[in-house]
């Protein structure tokens, strides 16, 4: 990422929603069935689990990971691990369709190339939400995060650099992609709830993929 790109307008269909927040509405839609198959394969190897946060609460969203690292949380805290503690094995590899999609996101957003070593996969059902948080467990916080929404719509909360900043609500739809970088990378964010009708591939749930360079 060059300093120059901080001020360059985003190309193509990309919308700049905030300084450092680029949206590519529906960009992942053509990949829908391949992505669904890939996620299904990943969770065969590394099944959905509800992790415990250090305070003792169990997260309402279920998670899995793929890539060289996976995000885990337990009573000792949040971190990335090369081993899935549930299976005792390495995480599944990043599937090819993820790499293909990322190459297109890089092209459309002007922010690539993305070199993720992990993809955290969140699954939300009707009851799930994600409280306002920052993503700060990655070693180098300069790397952008790419987020892909699949399935049912969700109300996404977009705050600022501190918990006190005002929070906007953004409706994330099936296939929507967000790229966060530089000035927005550390903004507080969360998921209030799911909305709208069931989805042909994902039913009443929503899946979110976040690609990160964590190690
Ligand atoms: C979600 N996303 O969309 C939750 N974190 O379900 C995140 O927590 C997130 O979208 C870091 C970067 C991008 C994200
Ligand atoms: Fe996050």
TrEMBL record:
Entry keyword Metal-binding: yes
UniProt GO molecular function: broad specificity oxidative DNA demethylase activity; ferrous iron binding; oxidative RNA demethylase activity
Gene3D superfamilies to which the protein is assigned, alphabetical: Alpha-ketoglutarate-dependent dioxygenase AlkB-like
Cofactor comment: Binds 1 Fe(2+) ion per subunit.
GO biological process, one term: oxidative RNA demethylation
Cofactor: Fe(2+)
Binding-site residues for Fe cation, renumbered to this chain: 133, 135, 189
Coiled coil ranges: none
Residue ranges of every copy of the Fe2OG dioxygenase domain listed in the record: 115-215
Entry keywords, A to Z: Dioxygenase, Iron, Metal-binding, Oxidoreductase
SUPFAM superfamilies: Clavaminate synthase-like
InterPro entries linked: Alkb (IPR004574), AlkB-like (IPR027450), AlkB-like_sf (IPR037151), Oxoglu/Fe-dep_dioxygenase_dom (IPR005123)
One cellular component term from this protein's GO annotations in UniProt: cytoplasm
Pfam families: 2OG-FeII_Oxy_2
Protein name according to UniProt: Alpha-ketoglutarate-dependent dioxygenase AlkB
Top-level taxonomy: Bacteria, Pseudomonadati, Pseudomonadota, Betaproteobacteria, Burkholderiales
């Amino acid at each position: 990422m060059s300093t120059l790109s901080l001020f360059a307008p985003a190309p193509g269909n990309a919308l700049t929603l905030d300084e450092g927040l680029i949206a590519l509405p529906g960009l992942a839609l053509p990949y829908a069935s391949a992505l669904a198959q890939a996620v299904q394969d990943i969770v065969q190897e590394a099944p959905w689990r509800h992790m415990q946060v250090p305070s003792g609460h169990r997260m309402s969203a279920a998670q899995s990971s793929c890539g060289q690292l996976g995000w885990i949380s337990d009573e000792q805290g949040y971190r990335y691990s090369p081993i899935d503690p549930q299976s005792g094995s390495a995480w599944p590899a990043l599937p090819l369709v993820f790499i293909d999609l990322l190459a297109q996101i890089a092209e459309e957003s002007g922010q690539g190339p993305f070199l993720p070593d992990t993809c955290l996969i969140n699954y939300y059902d009707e009851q799930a939400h994600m409280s306002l948080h920052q993503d700060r467990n990655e070693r180098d916080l300069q790397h952008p995060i790419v987020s892909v929404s699949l399935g049912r719509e969700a109300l996404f909360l977009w705050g600022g650099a501190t918990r006190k900043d005002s929070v906007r609500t953004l409706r994330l739809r099936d296939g929507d992609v967000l790229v966060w970088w530089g000035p927005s990378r550390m903004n507080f964010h969360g998921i209030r709830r799911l909305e709208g009708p069931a989805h042909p591939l994902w039913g009443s749930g929503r899946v979110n993929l976040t690609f990160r360079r964590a190690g």
